[in-house]
Amino acid sequence: SQTIHQWPATLVQPVGSPLSLECTVEGTSNPNLYWYRQAAGRGLQLLFYSVGIGQISSEVPQNLSASRPQDRQFILSSKKLLLSDSGFYLCAWSSWRDGNTDTQYFGPGTRLTVL
Amino acid sequence: DQQVKQNSPSLSVQEGRISILNCDYTNSMFDYFLWYKKYPAEGPTFLISISSIKDKNEDGRFTVFLNKSAKHLSLHIVPSQPGDSAVYFCAASYNFNKFYFGSGTKLNVKP
Asked: Comparing A105 with A82, which gets the higher pLDDT?
């Protein structure tokens, strides 16, 4: 069965510090991978998605970046965190089946607080 | 530009009654729709989905209805249970594999 891991679960960082959140998927190959953020009182916002190694699409201009160094690894980074980066970050994966979009499955999330 | 909208931020329903959660979308290219349930501090979990070639999909107590002409999606929960209390997100996607989410509706089922 497929499993998605995210770490760390919680993180408190000062403004201006760097960020690295990691997501890995097990039990599937060549998944589509996503980073979302849920800010307080708002819905899920798509930040990045990737359809393959080294292929990253950005949805929202920001000081965040994403990388996919391996097929089942997706990393969210920042060189300098802003207060507005606080939120709940979710990694998700999906796959194509028979040419149709499959359901998306989410990791446990990372609660990021920037002080 | 929010392509998927959930205009009701909260909904309160008595246990045993029907819960109806609504969702509107603007992009006619969307061909797949999903509902997720989310508890605090957890990732969303998939509930039910529907393809644009259908207008109804049922799974136990959960039924999703799709009205393409109105670009409207709804989730019916019958009967509602206290354990259904959570935030419900609707989502839509098209063939680029991007998923767009609404802002969520917080459902409170009162015992």
From this structure: A82
Whole-number Å distance between alpha carbons of A110 and A88 = 6
User: CB A43 to CB B49 under 8 A?
Assistant: no
Look at residue A98 in the predicted model and tell me its pLDDT: 47
Give the closest residue to A91 by CA, choosing from A12, A26, A13: A26
* Average pLDDT taken over every residue of chain B: 92
Q: DSSP letters along B12-75, please?
A: EEETTS-EEEEEEE--TT--EEEEEEE-TTS--EEEEEEETT-SEEEETTEEEEEETTTTEEEE
Above 60 in pLDDT, residue B97? yes
Residue A97 clears pLDDT 60, i.e. is over it: no
Q: How many CB atoms lie within 10 A of CB A56?
A: 17
* Cβ–Cβ under 8 Å, residues B4 and B105: no
Mean pLDDT of B67-71: 96
Query: Which residues of chain A neighbour B93 with C-beta distances below 8 Å?
Result: 101, 104
Distance (Å) from the alpha carbon of A97 to chain B's nearest alpha carbon: 12
Asked whether A49 and A31 are in contact (CB, 8 A), the reply is no
- Is the Cβ of A48 closer than 8 Å to some Cβ of chain B? no
Assess contact for B88 and B81: CB atoms under 8 A. Answer: no
